[in-house]
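Dear U.,

Please find below the material for section 3 of the report. The protein was modelled together with nicotinamide-adenine-dinucleotide; I have listed the sequence and SMILES used, followed by the predicted complex structure.
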Amino acid sequence: MYSCSRIARGVSRHGPMTKCALKTATTTSTSTTAAGASIPMWTQQHATIHTSGNRPANPVTPKPMNPDPRENPMVGIAPNKDVNVAQRRIADFNLTGRVFVITGGGRGLGLSLAEGLAEAGGYVYCLDRNNKVDRRWEEAARRATEWGGQLHYRQQDVQDAAGLDRTIGTIADTHKRLDGLVAAAGVQQITPALEYRQEDAARMLDINYTGVFMAATAAARQMNKYKCRGSMCFIASMSGSVANKGLLSPVYNSSKAAVIQLARNLAMEWSPINKLDGTGGIRVNCISPGHIITPMVEKNFEEVPGLREKWEAENMMGRLAEPHEFKGACLYLLSNASSFMVSPPPPCCSPPLPLFLS
Ligand SMILES: NC(=O)c1ccc[n+]([C@@H]2O[C@H](COP(=O)([O-])OP(=O)(O)OC[C@H]3O[C@@H](n4cnc5c(N)ncnc54)[C@H](O)[C@@H]3O)[C@@H](O)[C@H]2O)c1
C-alpha cells in the first residue's frame, strides 16, 4: 500500500527512471516547448552512465533544465480529457456492469470522477443536493453512453441520512449489486477561527464528515446485502494534513483530517471477509488532492484576491489541477487494480503535494 502511494507520486525507484533515460537518449538530446524554446535533455552519455556502469574517465554531463512548470507535461503524451481511456482499458480497470454511487456528483470533481468510472464501463449514480443538473452534467452523461457506461442523477442531500440510505438502497436493489462509492460532496467556508459560529462549524462537519460517514454505512449495508466486495474512495484533501497558506478555513481542514481517519477505521473494520456469512471484503481509501480548479475554488478566488497566484507559486508543480486529472486515481481505487490497497498510512512526506493517495 505504501508503495502504491509512491508510484502514484511518480517516485518509483528503479525501472521506469532507467527506461525514461534510455528512451530519451536514443531519440533526441533536445526538446522544443510549445513556445519554441529548446530544452536540453538526457544525452547518450547519461544513458551509458545509468545503464552500463562504464563511467567514462572525464564525463561531461550537461545539466537538465526544468521546463515551464505551468505547462502540463502530460499534454501530447496522455489522451486529452475528450479522448476516452476505455478504448485502451486493461482488464483490471474494466468496470463493465458494475454499479457506483458518487455523492457530490452534480459538478466539479465529483462529476469528473463519475465520468471516469462511466468511461470504464460503469453505471454511475450521481447524488447531489441540487434539484436539477446543469449543461456540463448533461454533456458528460451523453458522452458516457458512447463508451458503454451510464450516468444517472438522483437529488439527495447527504445531510438527510435516512433519505441517503433509501436512495442508495433503491439503486442497489435495482441492479442487485453495489460495487463502489465515491464520497465527494463537500463544502468550504473561509472564516477566521475567532469568528467561526457554532452552527457553521456544525453544518460543515455534518456535510464534510458525517455525510461521508452516512454515505459509507449506507453503501456498506448494500454491499454486504448483495455480497459485493465493494470499494470506497473518500475525497479528503491535502488540507486534512496541512494548513493551507492563504486560506483561513479551520473547520474545513479539520473535517478533511477526520475523513482520512474515518477511512483508516472503516478499512480496518470492513476489509476482512467474514467467513461465516460472506460479508465484508470492502476496501476503503482516500484521495487527498491538492488545489483543483472547480466551482468551489473559483469562488475562493473571488473571495480572496491573489489566492490563485499564491497557490500556484507554492505548488511544487507550479500550477493547479483540473478535475479530470483525478479520474485515473479514482478508477484505480474503485477497480480490481487496487485489490490489495486499503488502510491509509500516516502522511510521510512534505506537502503541498499534487495528489496523495491515502
Ligand atoms: N477543489 C479543490 O481544490 C479540492 C481539493 C481537495 C479536495 N476537494 C474536495 O473535493 C470535493 C468536491 O469539491 P469541488 O471542488 O468539486 O467542489 P464543488 O462545490 O464544485 O462540488 C461539490 C459538490 O458537492 C455538492 N454538495 C455540497 N453539499 C452537499 C450536500 N449536503 N448533499 C449533497 N451534495 C452536496 C454540491 O452541490 C456540488 O455539486 C469536496 O469534498 C472538496 O472538499 C476539493
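For the text of the report, you could mention the following: The first helix runs from residue 2 to 8.

Regards,
Y.
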